[in-house]
Amino acid sequence: MIGEKTRSELMEIAGRYPQARSGLLPMLHLVQSVEGQVTSEGIELCAEILDISAAEVSGVATFYTMYKRRPVGDYHVGVCTNTLCAIMGGDLIFERLKEHLDIGNDETTPVSPGGGAGKTVTLEHIECNAACDYAPVMMVNWEFMDNQTPQSATQLVDDLRAGKEVTSTRGPRICTWREAERVLAGYPDDRADEGPSAGHASLVGLKIAREQQWTAPPVEASGPTEGDMAAEQAVEQADTARAESETKVQEGTEGDK
């Protein structure tokens, strides 16, 4: 159940924007941080605060894949299975994890018998993690885990389930999914500066540019050049001439009538 603290924070988020409904996305993340998913209660509350219909809120919650309508485990593990990651091993990693965890796509491992310390993992295939230079890539609660193999992937989920500290290859220590959702709602956890923000593969182009002494054109040259303007004028003149010609033809046809 959503308490008064969460209601107050939802109203605070809505108040950040000139138009309150612009706060819907972070508000839904906050709901997930509390409920573990986007619940009907969360949808109704967001609609009430923003003075929009529940159908409008539901439309957003079902459009974006980061919003979940089923409970998510302590950790959300996404495996990229788009073209490059797939051919580099992403499909094999995903199949290995399904077998290793004994769950399917968008399913969650069961809670440990007797309520032990074991953590739960939700597994999902992702269309693209926007990290092709590190393929095959996985994400844990939206943090990158680069250059994975079936072996490293199974070790990763085992460490997560055992409650061990895991660090992103290009980011901070991994928190729980609910904690990550609270960050996405706009409440920082002071981990933003942990770990490297860019790796070698992402910086190769910059290295080559510096070696070749390539630079970007000056700002004043980024606008239309004289050649561009001349081309535009030629097109405008051609359009005008064609329009005049068509008008004359039309007038001549009407005169014949």
Description:
The protein has three domains: 4-63, Arc Repressor Mutant, subunit A (Orthogonal Bundle), CATH 1.10.10; 75-204, Glutaredoxin (3-Layer(aba) Sandwich), CATH 3.40.30; 219-256. 49% of the residues lie in helices and 8% in strands. It is built from nine helices and five strands, in the order ααααβαββββαααα. It has helices at residues 4-14, 24-35, 40-50, 54-63, 83-101, 150-161, 177-184, 200-211, 226-256; strands at 75-80, 107-108, 121-126, 138-140, 143-145. Helix 1 crosses helix 3 (40-50). The longest helix is centred in the last third of the chain and has 31 residues, at 226-256.
Key structural traits:
Arc Repressor Mutant, subunit A, alpha+beta, 257 residues, Glutaredoxin, 9 helices, 8% strand
Topology:
Layout: H1 4-14, H2 24-35, H3 40-50, H4 54-63, E1 75-80, H5 83-101, E2 107-108, E3 121-126, E4 138-140, E5 143-145, H6 150-161, H7 177-184, H8 200-211, H9 226-256
Helix pairs in contact: 1-2, 1-3, 2-3, 2-7, 3-4, 5-6
Q: Which CATH class of the largest domain is shown?
A: Alpha Beta
Tally of contiguous helical segments: 9
Q: Please estimate the helix content.
A: 40-55%
Number of domains: 3
Average pLDDT figure: 89
Looking at the structure, the CATH topology of the largest domain is Glutaredoxin
The strands making up the biggest β-sheet line up spatially as 2-3-1-4-5
What is the number of E strands? 5
CATH architecture label of the largest domain: 3-Layer(aba) Sandwich
List SSEs in N-to-C order: HHHHEHEEEEHHHH
Oligomer: single chain
